[in-house]
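(Protein data)
===
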Amino acid sequence: MINRRRFITQAGLGTIAAGASLLGHQWLAFGVPPATRSKRLVVIFLRGAVDGLNVVVPYQEADYYRYRSSIAIPRAGQPDGVLDLDGRFGLHPSLAPILPLWQQKSLAFVHASGLHAVDRSHFDAQFYMERGIGNSHRSGDGWLNRLLKAMNNKAPLQAVSLSANVPQILNGKMPVSSISGGRLANRRQAIDRKEVATAFDQLYGNGQIGRVYREGQAARQQLLKDYEAEMMAANNGAKPPTGFAADATAVGKLMARDPRIQVAFMQLGGWDTHINQGGSKGPLANNLGSLANGLVALQQSLGDAYQDTEIIVMSEFGRTARENGNRGTDHGYGNVMWLLGGGIAGGRVYGQWPGLAEHQLFQNRDLAVTTDYREPIGQVLQAHMGLDNLAKVFPGFSSKNEFKLHA
């Protein structure tokens, strides 16, 4: 965490108590000027690799349902089915709260997007995306910090990160304030509660059935242990979406009140769904519901400032096209990015859709990447934030201008 005195001096935000909580509204500091029109950017990183195929569902593709017998979202018009977007793609039903934003054309998606360099390691893929690079070289700072530096000659942009420590994406020379929010919530099934497990132990006792039961329980506990270790690594310090709406509300109010806070970063964990992912209902659906409620809360708390704000939701990579033997999905490749805000030409799914037929899958397992993740971000930085030279933020990247996210 940076030196708070240095941040206060440079940002001029007034008194910020050490360890301040967003929910305590201590961030609404004394002496804050009335809001003026200024461009704002919010980046939300879903750590753990969210399953983009169950977020924006290609429900017209028969292969999608063939690959996912237990976790596919039913077609539009069916019980618990997708919310139709354009006759081709549908939104996960848990994301119903953000459907009005789509209908108002301030929400768009870029499908089959991601990191062109194939790396199914959470740590490495997050590192590359936060640094804004491929895997051919390592930049010393994050792309959001480079944005602060590039824009500093025009206006003193300031950034806040809702995280325990300054994340890689904001790492660099420009001042950033990092604070914690929300609470960690762990969820286990009933069989994992000690009293329930003891009752089952007594019920089955000894004998052949008892031996099989105990071996199964031992295997399950080891699987849970391995899964939780994987989840912890994938989350990289990010907290689950539970409580996101409250944090998003506080961030929105902060940015609406003080126009000098123009960049905010938030991160959510819990997206590494190897086991029992669920379809229209289940763990992924619950997380998506919390995310949707948080996005709506952010939009509402920004108030009129939402028209001058753009929000990027991204994740390090997608999941396999096929479900695995544990009714989950494994580390994949192509994913979907979300773009929200007053300047977005929404109501569209952008990007070149590669298809899900066997011969169209990347390495016979994943949705292919047809759009570099830096393409939509770059458009937001230039068209919305007014960045004059994209190379200042994404060195070595050239936009292909495949589509336009802004009217």
Remarks:
- The chain has ten helices and twelve strands.
- The two ends are 39 Å apart (CA to CA).
